[in-house]
Design a protein that fits this description.
- By secondary structure, this protein is of the alpha+beta class.
- It has 3 helices and 7 strands.
- Strands 1, 2, 3, 4, 5, 6 and 7 form a 7-stranded mixed beta sheet that branches.
- The longest helix has 19 residues, at 3-21.
- The two termini are 29 Å apart.
């Protein structure tokens, strides 16, 4: 494993902890100014909307952690991070419950690694979705 892969895995875990803790300094440091989130419902949130919601408590992560190994691919100053997660979230006071999701995040380097784009896709509870190491054959 390269040093960069290890750093990116640690940064993603730190980012998730920062979301649960609503830690402004961590969130500001790890989210690129051009950050955009596509959440499991398919909506698109800007950095300002997303981080503002987390910091105000409108978006309340009670749990957000990887449920698989964090796969990382690096090419120059860009990196893609992919993993399954478990999320317990409440948005605008509505009980959201626990979600299982696939995440794909794009990190950009310059002068530090920061997440630029993030997309979460919900895995339906009744899904027969195979584990993260499953490979389609064709």
């Amino acid at each position: 494993m390269s040093v960069t892969v290890g750093i990116l895995r640690e940064l993603e875990c730190r980012r998730l902890r920062g979301l649960v803790d609503a830690d402004e300094s961590v969130l500001e440091a790890l989210h690129d100014p051009e950050f955009v989130l596509v959440h499991p419902g398919g909506g698109v949130w800007s950095r300002a909307f997303y981080l503002g919601g987390v910091l105000s408590g409108e978006i309340d992560y009670r749990r957000f952690e990887p449920d698989s190994e964090i796969d990382v691919r690096v090419d120059g100053g860009l990196a893609v991070v992919r993993y399954r997660s478990v999320i317990d979230i409440q948005v605008r006071g509505q009980q959201g419950g626990t979600l299982a999701c696939w995440h794909m995040d794009c990190y950009r380097y310059g002068p530090t690694w920061r997440v630029l784009w993030s997309q979460a896709t919900e895995i339906p509870p009744d899904s027969n979705e195979p584990g993260p190491d499953h490979q389609e054959r064709g």
